[in-house]
Amino acid sequence: MWNVADEGSFKLFSNKKINLKIKVYEEGAKSKIYVNYKGYNIIFAMEVWGFGMECQEWDIHEKMGGDCVKNPADMYFIVDSMCIGPFIDLIYFFIIENSADQMLKEEYQVNW
User: Fold this and answer.
1) What is the CA radius of gyration of the chain?
2) CATH C-level class of 3-108
3) Cα angle for residues 51, 53, 56 (degrees, 5° grid)
């Protein structure tokens, strides 16, 4: 399902089928995870649409980082490094199951 590239300071997970890229910065016990779905960082929208509840069902503890008011395109998730695989899979399934194209907004555009 994933193509994985080690980019030095981060790992890039990509799924060309749905145009999804995920950057993972491992920082010891915690990791920062950035999402690019079709050129948009939809992390804030995912939280509004109930992604946090899905994480609880999978027993994954996540929180958002960044400033959703000043720069929503630079939001990221913070998760335990041991949960990266299941968390990335959960992002994919959430996008598929929730018609995430409805979450795309101009202020969420990213350049990577």
Assistant:
1) 13
2) alpha beta
3) 115
